[in-house]
Write a structure and sequence with these properties.
two-stranded antiparallel sheet
Amino acid sequence: MEALQANVERLNAYKSKLVVFPKSGKAEEATQFQGVFMPVEKVAPKVEFVAVSDAMKKNSAFLGRGICFNKFTGSRGKSGANDAAAELVGKVRKLFNDHGVVYQTSELGKVDQGGGGTIAYIMANYDMDVIDAGVAMLSMHAPWEIVSKADVYMTSRAYHEFFVNYR
């Protein structure tokens, strides 16, 4: 909220110094603002640090640890969530172990509060066995997304092994 308010104040200050020429007006009647127009204030960002708990370590995806798959994704109970069957998770883990695919498991956000989400729940609504799997990523949907080249390779291997050897 503070960032929004700071932007509003900055834009209001900009608008107060803006000169708009009307179509029928005379340009020579306008005056050019002199001096520093909009100084950029360097404000140190507020960073909130939290202690990393064991649960965070166990449920977070990390770069360089292989394909990442999630047993549970979504929120709003059954209507917007997917919870992979334990049997499916076991079969996928065994398949990856048997074929040397490096993998990790993680959770997307807090249960029933969302945080991340895919279309897996839509397929689950049609009684399909589904599990979310993909490359672990930092800053998803940001201008710069960061992934590990090793994870991309393992994801490719994992998909190959799944489509060729999953029974």
